Amino acid sequence: MKKTLKTIIKDFAEGKIYFSLNQIRKFLSSKGLKYSDVSIKKYIKQLINENYSYNAGRGYYSKIKNEFKPDNKSLKPIVKLLKQKSPFLEFSVWGTEQIKFAFHHLQNKFYTFIFSEADSLEILRDRLASKGYSVYLNPTINDVKKNPFTEQNSIILRNRINHKLSKEQFAPIEKILVDLYIEAEWIGIIDLEEYSRVFEYFLRNYRLNISLLLDYAERRKILTIIKEYLRKYINPTFV
Known about the structure:
Elements: H1 5-13, E1 18-20, H2 21-30, H3 37-49, E2 54-55, E3 60-62, H4 76-85, E4 91-95, E5 110-116, H5 121-130, E6 134-137, H6 141-146, E7 153-159, H7 173-186, H8 192-205, H9 210-219, H10 223-233
Parallel strand pairs: 5-7, 6-7
Antiparallel strand pairs: 1-3, 2-3, 4-5
Helix pairs in contact: 1-3, 7-8, 7-9, 9-10
C-alpha cells in the first residue's frame, strides 16, 4: 500500500527532536518523490494540529512540546528600579540565576546582564550603584583579570543589539544562549565546555525557536558557531 505524504513525513520525523522543511524537501527528493511546498506544509500543519510536532520557528519543527519560560523573580526589583525614573527606556535583562539548574558545576556566583542604548549605560550604572548594586560597564577579560568579580551578584551593562529579541524586557532563552556564549568568551564567566552542556540541556529539554536563535546569532556575529552547536546535537539542515 502506497504511503501518504503525511505518513512519509511522520516516518522521517520519527526519532528526531528537531527537523526542518528543508530537510523534508531533501529527503523526498532523495527518494525520487516530488511534492509541492504547499502539500508538504499542509501535512506538517496537520501534524502540528494533532500535537505530533510543534512549530520551532520559521521553517523549523520540533517533537518537544514544552517551551522554557525563565523565572524572572530575581530580576524584577532591578527592572522596577530602572523603570521608575526611565519609564520609556528600552532594555533587555537576564541573569545566570535563571538557568542555574542547567549548569553541570554548581555556580556560587550569579551575574545579571542589562542591555540598553550606549548613551544610557553610564546613567544606569550610577543609578544602580547608588542603590548598592555592584555594576560593571562593558567589562573585558582584561578588566576582569585586574579586578575579578568578587560579589555574589554582579550586574554587567552592555550595549543593546538592535534585534527583535532585544525588545523583550525579560530576555527569552534564545537570546540568553547567544549572549551567554559571548560572555563566556569575553569575560570567562564559564568555560566553553560548561557552555556546551548548558546549550545541549536547553536544546534537548525545551523547544527553542531555531530561526530566532540563528537570526540573533547572526546579528551578534556568531552564526557559524551556533550552527556548529546545533549540528553537534541535532544535525538540522539550515535554510
